[in-house]
Each structure stands twice: as structure tokens, then as C-alpha cells.
Amino acid sequence: MNGNPSQDRHFSHDGARRIAVLGAGITGLTAAWHLKRAGFLPTVFEKSNRAGGAIGSLKSHGWLHELGPNSVLEGPSEVAALVDGLGLAGRRIYASDTAKRRYIVRGGRPVAMPGSLREFVSTKLFSRGAKLGLLAEPFRARGRPDVDETVASFVLRRLGREFLDYAVDPFVAGVYAGDPARLSVRHGFPKLHRLEQEHGSLILGAIMRRNSSGGPSGRLFSFPGGLEELPNALASALGESLRLGHTVLGIRRAEGGWQVDFGAAGAGGSESFSAVVCALPANSLAGLALGGVPGAGGLSILREIDHPPVVSVFTGYRRSDVLHPLDGFGMLVPGVEKGSILGTLFSSTLFPGRAPEGCVGLTSFVGGMRQPQLTDASDPVVLGNVVAELRRLLGARGTPVFTHLQRWPRAIPQYAPGYQRFKDAIASAEASAPGLFIGGNCRDGISLANCIESGKRLADAVAKGSI
Length: 467
Description:
Number of helices: 15
Largest sheet: 7 strands, mixed
CATH topology of the largest domain: FAD/NAD(P)-binding domain
Strand order of the largest sheet: 8-7-17-18-19-16-20
Radius of gyration: 23 Å
């Protein structure tokens, strides 16, 4: 599309430039923002009364707690372009250098992950046998490219049991709230899969990529007021294009485009658009009524995607009541350690302004694919379990001076083996319905950066007239 939409033969009048965007999470907001900048007229429908989806920052009495994602990776160019374009570059705050250290619990105590070869040689996190076993990794055979292997199988084959138990399992729990035995390496961690397929070795592949690209880039960042500043800025930029409290009842093909039926407080209606961008959670997408689209029922399969429950528990302590130095990003608890939390972020170490002077803030996670039943307990029981774990692992004494629990009944989509069938169903729906564009964390990746990239991809696809 050229820089002047009025001169484009496909979008020559306002009606043809009207685009419906379903969902005001970060993907939908990003897509709408890019569309508006490109000269389109987006209308964002969001059933709740706030924008941002899982992103939320709670501020209370000097505490700042993230209800969902805690940071975003600067690396992808789409992220920088969004932050800069919104005028937020000057408000970006980077994670503390102290937060580069990660802890893994082994033998009931947090052990720092090695950050260099020298630290790896001396670390007590892995046995001497496990360390020596890495020397054989470059000589192990590639996996079959046609097999959708689990992360657990992949790591056992290439790195061995200890690295699965004390490196990959806790990492998977921290990223996906998932279980490596039930996640696809091809879909959940595509970079690892490509390293093996392209280089035959994770170690050699990582070395070659580092030498050719200067190594991994990107830093974690947030904002003084928390990550919620990002969707708030997007909502402000969209203005009246954002319609909160509007539930989409269905969409249907109409002459020259699409009809969107919606309900709102005390009213409802139907409006015409030339295209529809869907940035909805998988279960909402599965239940979306699609009229005039052959085979639209295929999206109902998205209901089969697992989304484990997670409870995010923020606890604030007096600094003097926590024995651990909290000199890192946080700690992760491997499944073999039989704890009742997935891990804990050292929130007030990660970014400034998260706790009052003389206090520290910790964010712990309960449930996931590993222990979903723990989220069934009442708030006092969940909090009591977390406090007990923090006492055992971090030496947190006494009672927290501030607490907040956030429940996510359907947290993160699990990219399990066979996940391609879900992506195929989405692609099939798009192919049978020109002008329908689908993205979000059930298709394009689960991280905040992935969702921002997804929003940009959707906007570009609308402009090009194809996915």
C-alpha cells in the first residue's frame, strides 16, 4: 500500500478503509494502532471495560505489582518501533544488572545458574557427570524433522536428565507454566528446534549464530508506572476508535466486506467493515459465530488447546525480614523438588519503584500444568502455601506487610505436540474468508514481544490484502 490510502485502488473511500478489530489485548491494540497510522479507520471491540488484556499494573500504598506479564524484551524491532511511536522511549526503564542472575532450587535451596564457562565448571547445580556429558552433545544425531517431539524427549536426547530436571523443566514452568513432557519443541521453542536441524548441535549452532550475529540482543524493560503504561498509551492514541464494553456476538460475510454484530450496555447493533482482524483468546475465537464462511466450524477445535490455571501471588516484606540477598531476577522451582510454587520473581530487584523504602516485593506463581489442583484452594490457603515456601527457600520471616492475589483460570496456551492442527484450522478459516485476519498468542507465540509482532503482522496483512 502506498503512503496515501485515498490513492490506493483497494481502499478508495472511507467505507472500504473501515477495519474491525476484535479484542483489545496487546495484539489487537497494536494492530489497530498500526492500521490507524497507515490511514485505515479501525474500530476495536472489547467486551471488558478496560484495555490491555492480561497486562495490568496494581498500585497501592507505595507498592507496584504486575498482575500479568512483568517485562517485555526490547530485541524485536517491532517492539522498539511501537514504544518509540507512542512517545514512551523516554519512560523506558531497563531491568537492573543485578537481575541478570537466575536461581534454580536444588536440594531445597536456591543455587545461582552459571553465567559463564568458569561458573559452569564450578557450579553445584549440575553434577560432574552431567557437565562432562555436554562434551558429547555435538556428536549426537539430529532428531527426525518429521517428528513433533516433546521438549522433554528433545532435551533428554541431547543434554541428559539433569539438564532436563534442573534447567529446562523450571524454565518451561517459568515461561509457559507448562510441562516439558507435554510441550512441542517445534512449536513451543522453535529456535531450539532450528538449531538442531540446521547445525546438528545446540552448542555448535549457538556458537555459530553468536559469531555471525554478535550474539543475542535485547534487554528487558518496563515503565515507571508498570507495563500497563503501554496499553494505556495505545488506548489513548486510538481514542474513540476503541469501544470498551462491546461484546461481539458474531461476524458474517456481507456484500463487499463484513458485518459485525455486537452488544453493549443497553444497546447493540451491527456495522459494516471491509475486513476483520481477530485478536481474541483461543476459546473466544472458537466460539465466535462466523456467518457465510464455508467450514467456519473448524475453529471450534481451538477449544482443545490447554490453558492451565495460574495464581500470581504478590507478597511485600520488610527487607530485614528476608534473609536471601535477592540479588537476581528470581528463582525457579523444578518439579523434582516437589515444591508448591513454580517460582518467584524478585520484583523489587528487577525494577525500581516496586516497593516502599525498606521493603521488598516478591511475585510467586502457583499451579500451571504441573499442579493445577493447587489453584482450587481458597485465597488464604494459596497465600499460606506461598508464604511457607518463601520462608523455606528465601528465609522470609514473619507475615507479609502487603499481599495481592490475581487468578488466571485460563493462563497461557500450551503448544503441545500436534499443535499444527490448530494453526492449520486458523489458516483454513482465513483462506475461506477473504478479509478475515487472525493472530494472537494462540498462533504467533506467547510472549509480549510475540504479541506485539503479531499485531504488526496483522496490520501489514490487511494493507497487503492477504495473510
